[in-house]
Amino acid sequence: xxxxxxxxxxxxxxKHFTICGDVHGQLNGLPSEDxxxxxxxxxxxxxxxxxxxxxxxxxxxxxxxxxIHLSCGNHESKSMNKIYGFEGEVxxxxxxxxxxxxxxxxxxxxxxxxINEKVFVVHGGLFSxxxxxxxxxxxxxxxxxxxxxxxxx
Length: 153
What we know:
Elements: E1 6-9, E2 18-20, E3 37-40, H1 50-63, E4 68-71, H2 78-83, H3 86-93, H4 96-106, E5 112-115, E6 119-122, H5 134-138
Parallel strand pairs: 1-5, 2-3, 3-4
Antiparallel strand pairs: 5-6
């Protein structure tokens, strides 16, 4: 079952919650039930261990879903994977089939999170169009490559 485009996260009072952006294939620190993480996109490229990083993040999500949240960044797309080397890394370490599998899985990643109904977290900043509401983000059909225009570009 896919997560929604906008995920609401509740952080209990007095608990830590780490928001981590632009990992780019380099992972420092690990999530736990006592210190959940939100990895805010760009898990890939600029490191030679992007495959290992994304597989580690997916494994953590499977093992402890409430301790890790993942959102889609601009590097989680076919074009960026090709340009910046993740596609080549996947082909050399795994296979062509995994290139397509990663592309499909990335389309299932949420686009944004709201923490305790107060903190809005999205990769890449706010929208070029004024008046975007949380309900607009919740309604995005993100199961495709990002378009050239609109609130999901």
